[in-house]
Design brief:
eight-stranded parallel sheet, two-stranded antiparallel ribbon, binds NADPH dihydro-nicotinamide-adenine-dinucleotide phosphate
Length: about 280
């Protein structure tokens, strides 16, 4: 046994965040998003990761309200899109996201991307939304060391989370960033944790999956949890949503975790912010 599906991490402002969540990027809006969230809640997930740009915030909100679960038992993240940078623009975007979801607060509001130029102004608005209770925590996504250093030098509230693409195939590539986040008590959250399926056929991953009688997806999720990264695999399918949560009944040998740590090949399957000024 290793943890439980409701295992949380305590963010640097004291908020508890479930380590496992369901990502809903590319889940079609409308009934599909509502039903995948319902499947996730039934499987025990209590954390949903959406974004303004995914076009399904409204449906995530509908699913939360229809779930019958207490609002405080669900953790919902959404993100501020690149067209909404700037102080007033960000304040408006946050309120619009809340209105679409029909909620009175977000649990984690992230700056989606470190857009050059206005990101510090945007952060002031994020801090104001935190102070006003519109969101319980604020964070960033796709921030590299230079973006974090710039922000940490001037912020009133540190980001609680940095959500980045992370899996064994880019762990080495992101190690300095992960160390920096740890130094500042910024929770690392792994997106595209399954490499979007691109590495499921890697023979070493298959060997580990066979050794633990698990699937490649489950090995990748367990690896993230063993590093205490929050992790948000996406699936449209009920059986995979359940499979991706069935990772709390085994633990991995330290030597196998270390082996996975060495799989690095600088793989990026989504978008790479390394060169954003
Ligand atoms: P993932 O690594 O989670 O992979 C999702 C893909 O894997 C889908 O094609 C899915 O197919 C498939 N899959 C899921 N589970 C299984 C399984 N058990 N067996 C086989 N195939 C499986 O990629 P994402 O890029 O979607 O990342 C996850 C989440 O991270 C997003 O949904 C989003 O919330 C967040 N994200 C954030 C970004 C950011 O910039 N902040 C960028 C990218 C993602 P199917 O759906 O058909 O099951």
């Amino acid at each position: 046994m290793s943890g439980a599906i409701d295992t949380t991490t305590t963010l640097n402002n004291g908020v508890e965040m479930p380590l496992l969540g369901l990502g809903v990027f590319k889940v079609p809006n409308g009934q599909k998003t509502i039903s995948v969230c319902q499947e996730a809640f039934a499987a025990g997930y209590r954390h949903i990761d959406t974004a303004m740009i995914y076009g399904n915030e409204r449906d995530v909100g509908t699913a939360i309200k229809a779930s019958g679960l207490a609002r405080e038992d669900i953790f919902v993240t959404t993100k501020l899109w690149n067209t909404d940078h700037g102080y007033q623009e960000a304040l408006s975007a946050g309120r619009e996201s809340l209105n679409r979801m029909g909620l009175d607060h977000i649990d984690l509001y992230l700056v989606h991307w470190p857009l050059e130029g206005r990101r510090l102004e945007t952060w002031k608005a994020m801090e104001q939304m935190l102070d006003e209770g519109l969101t319980r925590s604020i964070g960033v996504s796709n921030y590299m060391p230079r973006h974090l250093d710039e922000l940490l030098a001037v912020c009133q509230h540190r980001p609680a989370v940095n959500q980045i693409e992370l899996h064994p195939f880019n762990y080495g590539y992101r190690l300095a960033l992960i160390d920096l986040c740890r130094q500042h008590d910024i929770q690392v959250e792994a997106y595209s944790p399954l490499t979007r399926g691109k590495k499921f056929d890697d023979p070493r991953l298959a060997q580990l999956a066979a050794a633990y009688s698990k699937t490649p997806a489950q090995i990748l999720i367990r690896w993230a949890l063993d590093h205490e990264f929050a992790v948000i695999p996406k699936s449209l399918r009920a059986e995979r949503i359940r499979e991706n949560a069935a990772v709390f009944d085994f633990s991995m040998e330290a030597s196998d975790k270390a082996w996975l740590d060495d799989f690095n090949e600088d793989l990026i399957v989504c978008w790479d912010p390394t060169d954003v000024p």
